[in-house]
């Protein structure tokens, strides 16, 4: 029997309308389930329910909130294989990566269970005699969460968990293509001991449900991860109504390979960073900037690795790279591959549609030799498409790495301590990797970027408190 993924509003499951197939990008003939969408009125009801529940939830003890988050984290961890399988089928990430993501979602809830017990404050003496000052953190209120499809368990987890830990209530809208993961997460959250209305799931399109969240008068803050175009649109709307907002958007992340690098490690970093998860990570390395002295050797070795990659169904045991997540994303990838050819970049490897068996969105990973100004070297593609760019030396490589509108993550492969230290200081990015792929971050430390990649406070780790709390300064005369 096919599962129907429902919304969850004010403690009730809501079927929604326009029942639609939830597609399996690895096998279009075996859908994951089906789902209905809610309308703007239902979305406003969810914000209203969150508003009603907020003061009560904020008044719970840190231990009560910690217990709820810990229960959610424990169940996700205990069921990581099952949740990972759902994720693999719905998003197309190979099974081991999907199970890893489910485990990470569980760990994030457990981390914030601990953070609920460690909400920081300060106590200072006043400049006036007999007066004391306390600086405390309070919840922001009702937080809207708009999430993308590429990490359908981990990204919602790293927004929902801190929101609840600090006493906020939540209205969560997943991307339309991953309602199953959102529903599974909501189902676990619904049994964790939260009061009705403290957590709500609204399934529907960005245009209707996303816009309705933003328009709801009861909303106090919005956390968004997605495309630059949508993020910028939300930023303008949020500014117009004075809404606190946090945006994680695109990347065009550079990985520099210097001549002194351990070449095996550098090739593996490039392969993993550029192509794993089908290149559908905002931290993916899409610009491989390679010192000229080792450029040809690097390209040859990377091509050999690419030739050995097995592209196939997400749940097949021998799959290295799963399908592209959707027809829309596949069209975008193919269109950029054509753009690359048209603008004179040379296709060194791949870029063809593949047919490994079941009907799905399979694409051979592509590697271009490009010039820094090419569109494929400047615009985010969000697929298994990377380009290699030569650089005369470290200084030119750094200049090329920083010459982008984005600033999410930047990597370098080198055995030079001098260059590693210089790069960590001078890379214009929110995250820097030395001898590691640009994608793949820890769940307990700050995540976020600079320039066009991000806006507002950082996510994750204890830095999440910046967005999910507001500071109060209290003066007391003895
Ligand atoms: P992508 O291209 O990766 O799908 P989007 O920015 O379109 O990125 O989508 C990210 C999230 O933003 C999804 O949940 C989507 O439904 C939502 N979204 C898209 N358009 C809007 C909008 N106008 N208002 C609010 N949310 C939106």
From TrEMBL:
The keyword Oxidoreductase applies. Keywords: Oxidoreductase. InterPro entries: Ald_DH/histidinol_DH, Ald_DH_C, Ald_DH_CS_CYS, Ald_DH_CS_GLU, Ald_DH_N, Aldehyde_DH_dom. This is Aldehyde dehydrogenase family protein. Residues 23-473 form the Aldehyde dehydrogenase domain. PANTHER family: ALDEHYDE DEHYDROGENASE-RELATED. The keyword Oxidoreductase applies. The active site is at 248. The lineage of its organism: Bacteria, Pseudomonadati, Pseudomonadota, Gammaproteobacteria, Lysobacterales. One of its GO terms (molecular function) is oxidoreductase activity, acting on the aldehyde or oxo group of donors, NAD or NADP as acceptor. CDD domains: ALDH_KGSADH-YcbD. Signal peptide: none annotated. Belongs to the aldehyde dehydrogenase family.
């Amino acid at each position: 029997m096919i599962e129907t993924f429902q919304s969850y509003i004010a403690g009730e499951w809501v079927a929604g309308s326009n029942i639609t197939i939830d597609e399996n990008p690895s096998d279009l003939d075996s859908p994951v389930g089906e789902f209905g969408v809610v309308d703007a009125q239902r979305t406003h009801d969810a914000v209203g329910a969150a508003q009603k529940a907020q003061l009560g939830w904020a008044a719970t003890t840190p231990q009560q909130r910690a217990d709820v988050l810990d229960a959610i984290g424990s169940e996700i961890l205990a069921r990581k294989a099952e949740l990972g399988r759902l994720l693999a089928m719905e998003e197309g990430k190979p099974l081991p990566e999907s199970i890893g993501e489910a485990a990470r979602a569980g760990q994030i809830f457990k981390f914030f269970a601990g953070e609920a017990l460690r909400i920081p404050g300060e106590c200072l003496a006043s400049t006036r005699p007999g007066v004391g000052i306390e600086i405390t953190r309070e919840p922001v209120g009702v937080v809207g969460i708009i999430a993308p499809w590429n990490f359908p368990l981990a990204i919602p987890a790293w927004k929902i968990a801190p929101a609840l830990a600090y006493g906020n209530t939540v209205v969560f809208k997943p991307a339309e293509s991953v309602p199953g993961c959102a529903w599974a997460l909501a189902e676990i959250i619904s049994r964790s001991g939260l009061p009705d209305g403290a957590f709500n799931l609204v399934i529907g399109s960005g245009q209707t449900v996303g816009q309705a969240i933003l328009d709801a008068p009861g909303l106090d803050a919005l956390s968004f991860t997605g495309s630059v175009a949508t993020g910028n649109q939300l930023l303008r709307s949020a500014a117009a109504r004075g809404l606190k907002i946090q945006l994680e958007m695109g990347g065009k992340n550079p990985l520099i390979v210097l001549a002194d690098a351990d070449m095996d490690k550098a090739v593996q970093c490039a392969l993993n960073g550029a192509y794993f998860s089908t290149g559908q990570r905002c931290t993916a390395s899409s610009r491989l900037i390679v010192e000229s002295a080792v450029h040809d050797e690097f390209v040859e070795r990377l091509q050999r690795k690419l030739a050995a990659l097995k592209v196939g169904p997400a749940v097949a045991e021998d799959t290295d790279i799963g399908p592209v997540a959707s027809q829309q994303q596949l069209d975008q990838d193919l269109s950029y591959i054509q753009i690359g050819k048209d603008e004179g970049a040379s296709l060194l490897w791949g870029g063809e549609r593949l047919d490994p068996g079941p009907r799905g969105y399979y694409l051979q990973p592509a590697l271009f030799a490009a010039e820094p100004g090419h569109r494929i070297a400047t615009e985010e593609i969000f697929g298994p498409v990377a380009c290699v760019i030569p650089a005369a030396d470290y200084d030119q490589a750094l200049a090329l790495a920083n010459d982008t509108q984005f600033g999410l993550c930047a990597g370098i492969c080198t055995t030079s301590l001098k260059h590693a230290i210089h790069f960590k200081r001078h890379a214009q990015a929110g995250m820097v990797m030395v001898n590691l792929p640009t994608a793949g971050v820890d769940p307990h430390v700050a995540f976020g970027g600079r320039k066009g990649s991000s806006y507002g406070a950082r996510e994750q780790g204890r830095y999440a408190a910046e967005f999910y709390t507001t500071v109060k300064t209290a003066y007391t005369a003895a």
